[in-house]
Amino acid sequence: MHILQLGGILASLATLAGAVPPAALKRQVSQLRSNYDFVIVGGGTSGLTVADRLSAAFPAKTVLVIEYGEIEFAPGVFDPPTLWITAAPDQASSWTFQSLPNPEMNNKTAFVLAGQVVGGSSAVNGMFFDRGSRFDYDSWTEAAGPDSSGIRWNWQGIFPFFKKSVTFTKPTAAVAQKYGYTWDVSAYGGSTPIYASFGPFQWADQQLLRKTWDELGIKSRKECAGGDKEGVCWVPSSQHPVTARRSHAGLGHYADATRPNYDLLVKHQVVRVVYPQGLSLGPPRVEVRSLADNQLFNVTAKAEVVISAGALHTPTVLQRSGIGSASVLGAAGIPVVLDLPGVGANLHDHSGAPVTWEYTTPGNFSPLPSDMLDPVFFANATAGFDEIPAQGPYTMAGGNSAIYVSLPHMTTNKKLKSIIKKIRDLASNTALASSYLPADYRTNPTMIAGYKAQLLALANLLSDPDAPSLETPWATGGTAYGFLLHPLSRGTVRLDPADHLAQPILDYRAGTNPIDFDLHLAHTQFLRKLINTPTMQQYGAVETAPGAGVSGDAALVEYIKEQIVLSFMHPCCTAAMLPKAKGGVVGPDLKVHGAKGLRVVDMSVMPLVPGSHLSATAYAVGEKASAIIIDAWSHGH
Q1: Which of 29, 272, 379, 425 satisfies CB 3.0 to 4.6 Å to 321 for a cystine?
Q2: Which residues are known to be catalytic?
């Protein structure tokens, strides 16, 4: 079994590296067909999933994916020659974004990275392959309200597509016993060549924090991918179980899915979609720009256009098309085709500040990341990665461990009630709730209604003892980041009015809703408690940040403002799946409100960010969207 898997992934790697270019790969307009049934804008995680499924389901229909990037080899987050996780690891091409200064966070900016390559962000991310809790996805339908479509995006509705989207491989019995890995195969069950697995290596002090979390009363879970996630979790990596190479959409949904009806056009930018005969007569034409010579041409879709350009580029494709907020379009000099103010709104992401410490009593742990500086250890680690199966440090990606803790389990009942009351009171106060939105939305009743619905859903989520509010991933000791999983502040993604083809302007607006500081404060105060656990004291742990000199809520909030990471690279929700009356952009069928033949399928459609890294959810959304589209076209549309 492993030899067959190995042969498959090596063939895929060779194809993607360009050694054996597939016939379906196109680089110029002259190579395209006269028209296509389905045109997919963006060859990322969700887009390639849809392309794979549609081309398989409809052999007589043609599918074209248009991708800005190129086919590239995509190394893992911790592949040779990396010594350890670095600020600039060897990786495939990426988009980099820098947000506007954030006044509420001492004018800090958010740095965001996204894949500019076939495979999208699955080809450049941290390979941490977790899912949100069932309560995260239930909150989507709660925020949207009653719907008559019959399409459900709650946990029950999306869980089968999580299972379908990935093939999980159990570790060997010896490896499982050595590290204490646990899992439940019932959370998986797919046969898709997108792989999840645990590596045969962990740093020696990894168990130290597991003991610490236990002493803080956080229970270990056997499996965290089945909907119940509050506790200490083992999280698989998105990597092949034999080679430990990165598993991503460019491999599993393109290189492994070559079909005569599936074309991929690289190094081209979709400028906009055009409705020459009006919005009711879709699908639209797709206007494309060649990056080689800057020439424009149109691609005709006979069935549908699916925009899968990601949470930061999908809004700009729509805005260039005249679909978006009338005020935003007017400022950019773009005629309004469809006034949808939710396009580019509702931007949010995970953020958080660290608690750090040093050990004053030697633990004599070995190996540790510092051992990578030893030439012999480094050479052995590199050689181990090339073994079959792969061995050693380079098999562990960024780590496999995290805690997910609910607000009721980290703070006092009094503080919990105070925070939840603030959120509910805000949701019932239109004037106050609207004051926390971007200025041009504060008088828009649909945007206000949508935000108030989100606040109520978040109040229920945060008050649930089984719904995590905090994530802290780790692979080795010394730093614990407090990921805020459910922020209340909302930002924007907008065209650059001076250059419509330039990178969009991101305004994160983190902390504009002050309740976010209550949540950050609760998280940081909880994480500081780890220093005083018996295990940490055994090794003489001393807090280095915030440090003993930072005490009291006000001082700690200032520390958070100064040290916060504004983006853990999980931007979302900028074309939200909400009713139009709540500022939504797409419905449960992912069709753009009022635009025939146009859907959006990527992380922009989420109304609320789930408490997880987004890769697994992006695959599941792609799988569910594919099923929706296939069902529609299998029954006469």
Answers
A1: 272
A2: 570, 613
